């Protein structure tokens, strides 16, 4: 019997997309023939060698309506050329070209929604764009044979909206041993109590600005690292300067996952501070939370449903009542003042990491494929 051929599509540049990497590696380990198609960005680095085929498409534009149109057209053409029994579309911005290619090839279509796409902040004040994406999703979801998303809250919302069940596959890390590398800390952060906020989507309303301002209410021993990229990143240097906090904050660019984890392990507390500004943020479950735990550090998280449930279940962190500078500081201060309290949180973080890992989570992916075939 010939192995199942799976064509995977995603708009990311592949290098740092840990969810897609884990899914494709799992597929390969099941004996499937996997071909992954992504997007070449100006900042993209050379792709690391992986056990499945991968390539990236180049677009002339990098944002806006014309970018999405160009991406979808080029993705459609690329997918038509890749023989497949299954086309696995990651997010709504890949689903339409994936459906066209699946229909042409007689392939099964799987939809993996990494967020509540039609409720992202970028569409809040764009009613026409939001209407188009919602109509597109409503048209395409019934044509899928398998549906997956990132947490139970979004799965429930999508099922309520479209009447089809969505399996839950959380974006948790593989169970690994992470060694702290203090040499990765900037010089002025060494020997300090370091807060870290990391991610490739550090955007407006994700708490970076408030995290910076919270330092005014915290002792000098507290230092903040913001690591990654996002639309708020270019604004942060001015905020830091205006607040007079140049000696207490470092901005670091995106880095390889393994290095970022070693840096996180050298810090003391991870931050996840999404605000309730959109449906997507309200029901978010950022993968950075699980990365912090895998690095052995507790979490300070905003009081959103998925995060609240997880923190209450594991005890591996604290909740911030409101994402504002004073509330952030008030949540951090008790940890600074009690070594035993901090040690207890770190122990619970390690226990949470052992439970919330890819080795356990991938069973959900196996169930989806067993139902498919």
CATH class descriptor of the largest domain? Alpha Beta
- N-to-C span: 14 Å
Query: Please, what is the CATH homologous superfamily of the largest domain?
Result: Glycogen Phosphorylase B
Radius of gyration: 21 Å
Q: Strand pairing plus helix content: what structural class?
A: alpha/beta
Level-2 CATH architecture of the largest domain: 3-Layer(aba) Sandwich
Percentage of residues in helical conformation: 40-55%
Strand content: 15-25%
Question: What about the largest sheet?
Answer: 7 strands, parallel
Return the domain count: 2
- Helix tally? 14
Give the CATH topology of the largest domain.
Answer: Rossmann fold
Oligomer: single chain
Q: What string, H for helix and E for strand, traces the elements in order?
A: EHEEHEHEHEHEEHEHEHEHHEHEHHH
Average pLDDT confidence is: 93
Question: How are strands sequenced across the largest beta sheet?
Answer: 3-2-1-4-5-6-7
Note the main attributes of this structure.
single chain; 373 residues; alpha/beta; Rossmann fold; 6-stranded parallel beta sheet
Structure summarized in a few sentences:
42% of the residues lie in helices and 18% in strands.
Could you characterize the architecture of this molecule?
By secondary structure, the protein is of the alpha/beta class. Helices cover 42% and strands 18% of the residues. It folds into two domains: 5-172 and 358-372, Glycogen Phosphorylase B (Rossmann fold); 182-355, Glycogen Phosphorylase B (Rossmann fold), CATH 3.40.50. It contains 14 helices and 13 strands. A seven-stranded parallel sheet has the order 3-2-1-4-5-6-7, with helices on both faces. Strands 10-9-8-11-12-13 form a six-stranded parallel sheet, sandwiched between helices. The longest helix is centred in the last third of the chain and has 17 residues, at 339-355. It starts with a strand and ends with a helix.
């Amino acid at each position: 019997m010939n192995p199942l051929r799976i064509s995977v599509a995603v708009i990311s540049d592949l290098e740092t997309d840990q969810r897609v990497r884990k899914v494709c590696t799992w597929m390969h380990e099941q004996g499937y023939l996997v071909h992954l198609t992504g997007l070449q960005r100006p900042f993209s680095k050379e792709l690391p060698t992986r056990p499945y085929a991968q390539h990236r498409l180049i677009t002339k534009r990098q944002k806006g309506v014309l970018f999405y149109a160009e991406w979808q057209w080029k993705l459609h053409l690329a997918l038509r050329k890749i023989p497949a029994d299954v086309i696995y579309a990651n997010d709504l911005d890949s689903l339409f070209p994936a459906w066209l290619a699946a229909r042409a090839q007689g392939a099964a279509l799987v939809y993996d929604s990494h967020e509540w796409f039609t409720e992202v902040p970028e569409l809040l004040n764009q009613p026409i764009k939001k209407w188009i994406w919602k109509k597109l999703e409503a048209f395409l979801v019934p044509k899928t044979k398998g549906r997956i998303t990132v947490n139970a809250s979004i799965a429930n919302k999508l099922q309520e909206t479209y009447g089809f069940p969505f399996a839950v596959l959380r974006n948790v890390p593989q169970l690994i041993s992470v060694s702290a590398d203090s040499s990765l800390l900037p010089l002025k952060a060494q020997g300090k109590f370091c807060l870290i906020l990391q991610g490739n989507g550090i955007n407006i309303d994700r708490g970076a600005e408030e995290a910076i301002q919270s330092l005014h209410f915290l002792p000098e021993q507290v230092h903040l690292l913001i690591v990654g990229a996002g639309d708020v990143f270019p604004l942060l240097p001015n905020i830091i300067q205006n607040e007079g906090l140049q000696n207490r904050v470092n901005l670091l660019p995106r880095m390889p996952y393994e290095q970022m984890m070693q840096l996180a392990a050298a810090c003391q507390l991870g931050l996840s501070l999404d605000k309730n500004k959109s449906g997507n943020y309200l029901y978010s479950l950022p993968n950075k939370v699980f990365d912090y735990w895998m690095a052995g550090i507790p979490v300070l998280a905003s009081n959103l449903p998925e995060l609240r449930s997880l923190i209450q279940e594991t005890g591996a962190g604290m909740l911030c009542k409101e994402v504002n500078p004073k509330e952030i500081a008030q949540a951090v201060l008790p940890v600074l003042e009690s070594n035993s309290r901090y040690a207890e949180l770190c122990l619970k973080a390690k226990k949470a990491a052992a439970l919330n890992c890819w080795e356990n989570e991938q069973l959900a992916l196996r169930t989806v494929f067993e139902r498919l075939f």
